[in-house]
Every structure is written in C-alpha cells, then in structure tokens.
Amino acid sequence: MITDMTKGDPLKHILLFLVPLLIGNMFQQLYNIADLVIVGRTLGVESFAAVGAVAPVFFLITFIIVGLTNGFAVITGQRYGAKDIEGVRNSVIVSTILSTIVTLAFSVICSLCLNPILHLMNVPENIYHNAFWYVEIIILGLIITTMYNMISSIIRALGDSKTPLYFLIIASLANIVLALIFIQVFNMGVPGSAIAVLLSQGISVLLCLLFIRYKFPILRIHRHEWLIKFDKNFWNSAYEHLRVGVPMAVQFSIIGISVLVIQSVCNTFGSNVIAAFTAALRIEQIATLPMMSFGVALAAYVAQNYGARKFKRIRLGVIKTSTINIILSIVMAFIMRIWGTNIIGAFIGTGTKEIIDIAHNYLLISTIFYFFLGQIFIYRNALQGMGETLFPLLACTAELVMRIFAAVYLAIKFGYVGIFYAGPIAWISASAIMFFGYFGSIKHIIYKIKCKLHNGMVNIN
C-alpha cells in the first residue's frame, strides 16, 4: 500500500513503515546467513571459512548495487512527495535502463578481476576453490540481484514497506530449501549455496513484477513508454539519478572495500579466526538490525518530505529516530554481551571452543560502541533522503582510513584482536562527520530554497 508521509504524525508514519521493514530485514539476514549455517553444519568449518573469507567481496558487490538502486529510488520518492506522478513513472524507466547498463558492465569487470582480488585477500589455498566459485556464480547472476534491489527500493520509496516484505519472506524460505537441495541432495557443495541465493532472488523478482502489474497502477509501465527518446529530457533525468545514485554507490563501495581490507588481514590468521570473525559479524548484523531499519525507514520519510519541502517534519523525524536508536544501542549491546556466545554456537555445529571464544571476544569489544553505529544509520539516511552525498561520502572515506589503520597497525601490534577495534574506530569518526554534516546541510538547503523562491510561492515548513 502506497503511503503519503508528508502528512500526519511523523513517528507514526516511521513506525508503521518500520515494522514490516524490520521483519523484512530479519528475513534478509536469514537469507544471508542461511547459507553459512547450512554450509557450516553440513560441510564443516573449512567450507564455512571459504564462504566467510570472500564474504566482503560478495558484500562489496552487493553494496554497490544497493547504493546505486537506493540512490535512484531517492529521486522516485522525492517526485512522489512532490505529487509528480509522471515524474515517478519516468524515474522507474530511467532507473531500470541505468541499472541494467551499469550491472552488465560491472559484472564483466568483476569477473575479470576476481582471481587477482582473491589472491590480494590472502585467501588460503585449502579453501580457495570453493571461495572462488561462490563469488563467481554470484557475479554471473548479478542482474537478478540488481532487479531485486531496484524494485524493492522503488516500492519502499512510495511508502510501501509491506509488499517487499512478503516476497522477501518467500525468497528467504526458498533459499533455505534450495540450499539444502543443492548441497545435500545434489552434493554441489559451496557453489550450490550460491546458486540457491540467485534462484531465490529470481523468484522474488518475478513475484514483485506480477504484483506490480495488478496492484500498483502507478508503477505499471506500458510498452510504448519504454520506447523512449534519448533526447535532452532523458539525459537530464539520467543525470539527476546518477547525481545521487553514483555517490551512494561509491559510499557503499568504500564501506565494502574497508571490510574487504580487514578480511584480507583476517585471512592471514587461518581458518579458525576466519570462521570466528565471520560468525561474529553475522551476529552483529542481526543485533544492529533494529537500528539500521530505523535509518532506512527515515530515508523514505525524509525523501518524501524533502520533495514536499517540509523541513520541520524532517527535523522532527530525525530527532525522534535518533533518540530511539540511542535506547536501542544500549539494549542490543546488553543482549549481545549476555547471550552472544550461545548464538555463535548455532552457526558452527562442528566449531571448536577456540572459534567460539574468538567470536565472543569480538562482541565484547564492539558492543561498547553501538551508540555511534546507531547514529550513523540515522544521519546518513537523513542526508541521503535529501539527496545530499558529500558528507556521507566523507564519512565513508573516514571509515576506510580508520579500518586500514587497524589492519596496518593494530593487527600487526596486537594480532587478530587489533582487527576487532577497526569497526568501533570507524564508527566514531564517521558518526562525528555525519552529525555535523546533517545540521550544516539542512540549514544550507533551506537557505538556498529561500533565496531562489519568491515569497508565498512555496511554503517551507
């Protein structure tokens, strides 16, 4: 159901949008970790480590696609907030064309560069074959991932977080069933897990398209509308989308590269540390889901209100979600410190006590700094919802620098424990940049609009 977030109580809109989004993110994590749990408990620690060793490559590729499609959807949301229905339809067409072109080119580049990247990442020889084919299969089916993320982003930009949830649940369950079939029945090992990921995403894409055809008239693009002219209007619209989409893709890629650097160092400490680090990161992703979900919900809310030029509503939404995330960061840190070890054991049925202890040490360190991570989710998404890309880019760059510092200095000085401080250091630096960037940006945006518009023509709230 499409929702207009420019009217009514801000927190109510955000919460109603958040609930299905949070459930969806939980299933997304189930979608992501199902392969690891199945691989770890059926194929053993080495296969688990193979997937974990290249997880940053998988996430880097996915982050770039998610950043690009989310950036395009910001334009869709802003046009919907401005009640420009023709503009919304144009945004869907332009987003589809640009996403397809970028993905095909990106797939070729990734496939050609995969071997050198894995060697630079110090992937151990005993897990190299499985690691390579897991990522290569994902790359070959990247267009499916792109369409899945693009359609979901567009639907959420219109204020509907329920529809993507339904199909995500179906895809998550399909992923589990298919992974078990390919691994246990067909004995395809780790590559079978990657095939299951792509097929389940493909199922979700088909269901979304069918649902749009019958339930979303605003997104039902007719055949003649796809026969666009590559004239000035198209290129202006393409530039508008790329102006937001490309910086967001770069931001997400910087985050992915920083994680890749850390994983490269982690890979030098052997399969046990790789397995422990992989399990701990997945658990942390689950723990921080509520905070991340508030950020994503806020982005959709901000985009619509930015299009409607309702800046008071934007500021009110940011204040309320920021306060909630402070509380959530304390609660989730407390939960992870008490029950984190029990959850770790569920990941690796054959895991040794050493692996569990290493993963638990990571959680003891990182949970102290969840406050900063929670604020990053709020202010980054608020800025991106307004189409502002400079400060999120600067913050991501700071994260990259801090993670490299941890890899180059702390890991050498303190061993793998030094790696555990990479995330917290990056969160502190990025949150500071994002905080000041948000307040500076919103003041600057309001000032520019007041200078450009005549009195009485637009109501700036």
List the SSEs and their pairings:
Elements: H1 10-42, H2 45-53, H3 55-81, H4 85-120, H5 125-140, H6 142-157, H7 162-185, H8 189-215, H9 223-226, H10 232-266, H11 271-287, H12 289-307, H13 311-347, H14 353-366, H15 370-385, H16 390-414, H17 416-419, H18 422-452
Helix pairs in contact: 1-2, 1-7, 1-8, 1-12, 1-13, 2-5, 2-11, 3-4, 3-6, 3-10, 3-12, 4-5, 4-6, 4-10, 5-8, 6-8, 7-8, 10-16, 11-13, 11-14, 12-13, 12-15, 13-14, 13-15, 15-18, 16-18
For the termini, the CA-CA separation is 26 Å
Strand content: under 5%
How many strand elements? 0
- Tell me roughly what share of residues is in helical segments: over 70%
State Rg: 22 Å
Pairing-aware structural class of the strands and helices?
A: mainly alpha
Q: Give the uncertain stretches in residue-range form.
A: none
Overall domain count: 1
The residue-averaged pLDDT reads 83
Most strands sheet? none
**What is the number of helical segments per DSSP (H or I, 4+ residues)?**
18
The string of secondary-structure elements, in order, is: HHHHHHHHHHHHHHHHHH
**Shape from CA axes?**
globular
